[in-house]
Structure formats: C-alpha cells, structure tokens
Amino acid sequence: YIAVADALRANAAEMVEQLRANGIKHIVMMTGDNHAAADYIAGQAGIDEVYADLLPEQKLELVKELREQGNVAMIGDGVN
To answer: How many domains does the chain have?
Structure first.
C-alpha cells in the first residue's frame, strides 16, 4: 500500500479564528481534492462550507458567483 495525505498546517485553525474575530462570517474552501479529504480538513480548521473535486475553471466560476452575493476575499495559492 501507498498512502499520501495532506496535513493541516499548524496555524490553519488559528487563522480561521482570526478571520472570524475580524468580522468574516462565512468561510469557504475550494479544492481539487476529493470530498472526504476536503471535509476532514475543513472540519479540523473550522471552515463553514466545502467545494471539492473542482477544476481550476470551476474554482474561478465559483468565485465569480460568490462575488455576485457580496464581498469576497481569497486566500491561497491561486486557482490552480
């Protein structure tokens, strides 16, 4: 067997808490990872909503849709 896993960065949950303390009400994660992995990481980090199995183009479209609903800030390594 070969196992590969992404680990939650040590400061991720703290960063989510800081965002909330600064007035961010809803935190969304968009990832190309599978749903099970994404849900697990989101749960550990305190993220509200997860979109998984996304292609880069789908992430971009989702950001556009969310912007139509209000203000959006993006943190990450792009829409790769």
So the answer is: 1
